[in-house]
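Write out the 3D structure for:
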Amino acid sequence: MKKKNNRKSEKYQVKRSRAGLGLFATESISKGDFIIEYTGEAISHEEANRRGGRYLFTLNEKIVLDGKGREHIARYINHACDPNAEAIVENDAHIMIYALKSIDAGEEISYDYGVEYVKDIIQEEGCLCRSCYKK
């Protein structure tokens, strides 16, 4: 399986966000458009449990992608309770990120990390998404 080189796209760039670093649109993205593939080292669920970490993404019943390396650009997409993108597992082999709604140039790209991740990781520190963040 050949991985796509996510760095060649000019649809997004990594910048500072409220939650640390985030992925931001550099041009308008239309609802339904493909944005980026979530990539990472393919590991077993057992290895994922041993490693732990914030960049683990379940691909299927056998494989978890560990996107901890900085070359995996999609790892910079932050959680949002009201996201503008969604992650879809395609053919049990790829995690593709698509726009749920139109995203303006300069807007941070986000998706919902799911109940378990929010409960185990985000809830402890407090959600920093646009919907929850209180100045």
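The chain has two helices and ten strands.
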